[in-house]
Amino acid sequence: MDSTIMDYNLNIRSIFWRIEKLYKDREIISRTYEGIVHYTYSDFALRVRKLATFLKTNGIAGEAVASIAWNTHRHLELYFAVPLLGGVLHTVNVRFHESEMDYVIKSMGDKAIFMDKDINYKNSTLPTFIFDERYDEDVNSQESTSDFPDVDERQGAIACFTSGTTGKPKGVIYSHRSVFIHSLSLLAADALGISSSDTVMPIVPMFHISAWDLPFSSLMTGAKLVLPGPRPKAEDIVKLIKEFKVTVGVGAPTVWIDVVNYVERENVDLPLKVVVTGGAEPPLGLIKKLKELGVKTYHAWGMTETEAIATVNKSDNIERMSEQGYPIPAFEIALMGPEGNELPWDGKSTGELVARGAFVTKKYLNDKSDAQTKWFRTGDVARINPDGSVKVIDRLKDLIKSGGEWISSVDLENAIMSYEKVLEAVVVGVKDERWGERPIALVVKKPGMDVNEYEIIEYLKSLNRFPKWWLPDKIIFVDSIPKTSTGKLDKKLVREQLRSMLEEKKY
Ligand code: AMP
Fold it and tell me: What percent of the chain has pLDDT over 90?
């Protein structure tokens, strides 16, 4: 049989074709340091073509280039110009430490850096372009090019590194095909159901998992796109929603907690239709408040390795909204038992959530081991209801997610145990209304030693290694810490004990 029948590359060029041919007058709004930029898809496409020439002129067409930038139109232009020429745009997390930026830029082999002017990264000897008015003039002065290759769909388009709180960050490359299919899948009516009549504002950063692919998805369908720019605060977000009539806002639960608090404090309305939230479980209180304000919540689950959103819950039943929801098209799930056996979807069996699909990472950048063939292990512990809705209940990964950012419990434990008066320590995350999770430490003192909470926190500060928000909210002194049969700290049991202690306010 001829396998080339209907041979068509699902690539960024195909999305770009729609932008130029179908939605010329649709708008993109971008909040920048210089003010609000307002232009049409046509203006945007012309800038992309000129930027492509700029990349060629600078000898970086078809190469990997790094961006360290907020959600703006300049960043969006790179999202297209770089992959259209067969290069990979490596989005670097602006919150990375300089040494992490060095590491990821080197691992990726980037040939140039594009960054916002408030980014403090000076280590590199690579050509560096700062997003400012001069940059705009340089790009505008280029010829528009129409010379784009038809890039193979399996080639990389965008790269992103995991947060790397345990060990080094790991590189994930999203291919043209995965970006295309994921963006299309998000548009499905039972997924996010975004259409050309929507105005979408991705508050999730474009420097991590391409703002959950919302920029690609929105432009693919001709939605008006509002980019909230550098460090947007609740006040900025509400202002943009009102001024540009945003219908769909996308961000982590902490963003929406701040927005709801602001709206209540200032006694203003929130004329949004839909909030898409994920990255951590949103508190039901938040979903209820949004409902009172007339806003529907879509709860999404995903991870760097699944190109962000992979399951969505749009239930009208608030009590079921803590579930992470149903897999979107081209994404499959299963529940794995301890022996690698598949567990039933009965809403009771508990196992590791595993996944496969068109936008699930097969292997990390520079990983020499064999590619995973069957299932990708998410490290999340879940149940699956008979109807296919996922409920994440715990995490195998030794990490705590606070305000959408990772804290390494192992790093904290090792640091606490390096204190001379401490025998043993375990750090776990406990549920927190505002931050999702916060770290709490259980500590066993060395025999005959007297030590208090303040002393340990001061010791951690003196190490100069941890940001303030990493420090445990509470240190509880215990006689011993439960262990598993193999002698490892039994964090599952610790979390359970802690949960009941907290409920009974026993400490
Ligand atoms: P990251 O790769 O940094 O985006 O983190 C992915 C991890 O965040 C997942 O494996 C989960 O542990 C957690 N996560 C993401 N979305 C949710 C959600 N809706 N509910 C609970 N945990 C979530």
Answer: 78
Give the closest residue to 313 by CA, choosing from 336, 288, 291, 282. Answer: 282
Q: How far apart are CA 11 and CA 213, in angstroms?
A: 14
The predicted structure's pLDDT at residue 37: 97
Q: Where in the chain is the domain with CATH 3.40.50.12780?
A: 19-392
Active-site annotation holder among 162, 165, 254, 378: 162
Among 388, 395, 408, 384, CA closest to 467: 408
Q: Which of 224, 314, 391, 401 is catalytic?
A: 401
pLDDT in the model for residue 292: 96
Place of tokens 């776990």: 428
Q: How far apart are CA 102 and CA 429, in angstroms?
A: 30
Q: What is the pLDDT of residues 270-285, one digit of tens each?
A: 999 999 999 989 989 9
278 CB near ligand 1 (under 6 Å): yes
- Which CATH code, of 1.10.10.10, 3.20.20.150, 3.30.300.30, 3.40.605.10, is assigned to 399-503? 3.30.300.30
| DSSP letters for 252-277 | -HHHHHHHHHHHHHHT-----SEEEE
The predicted pLDDT at position 164 comes to 64
The tokens of 284 are what? 């039901």
Q: Which atom of ligand 1 is nearest to the CA of 208?
A: 4
Q: Which residue ranges does the chain devote to CATH 3.30.300.30?
A: 399-503
C-beta 281 within 6 A of ligand 1: yes
Q: Which tens digits make up the pLDDT trace of 34-85?
A: 999 999 999 999 999 999 999 999 999 999 999 999 999 999 999 999 999 9
The answer to whether 26 and 41 have CB atoms below 8 angstroms apart is: yes
301 CB within 6 A, ligand 1: yes
Span from the CA of 384 to the centroid of ligand 1 (angstroms): 16
Is 401 noted as a catalytic residue in this protein? yes
Q: Are 154 and 362 in contact (CB under 8 A)?
A: no
Alpha carbon distances (Å) from 48 to 140, 150, 234, 352: 10, 16, 31, 43
Cα radius of gyration rounded to whole Å, the chain: 24
Two structure tokens written together for 412: 């904290």
* Run of H or E including 311: strand 308-313
Options 20, 406, 421, 453, the catalytic residue: 406
What is the phi/psi pair of residue 386, to 5°? -55, -30
Kindly give the distance from the C-alpha atom of residue 128 to the centroid of ligand 1, in angstroms, as a whole number.
33
Structure tokens at 262: 């602001």
Please answer whether residues 157 and 107 qualify as being in contact, where contact means their C-beta atoms are separated by less than 8 angstroms. Answer: no
Quick one: residue 267, left, alpha or beta (phi over 0 = left, psi -120 to 50 = alpha)? left
Kindly give the distance from the C-alpha atom of residue 281 to the centroid of ligand 1, in angstroms, as a whole number. Answer: 8
Please give the number of the atom of ligand 1 that sits closest to the Cα of 300.
19
CB-CB contact of 445 with 400 (8 Å): no
Residue 257 Cβ inside 6 Å of ligand 1? The answer reads no
**What CATH number labels 19-392?**
3.40.50.12780
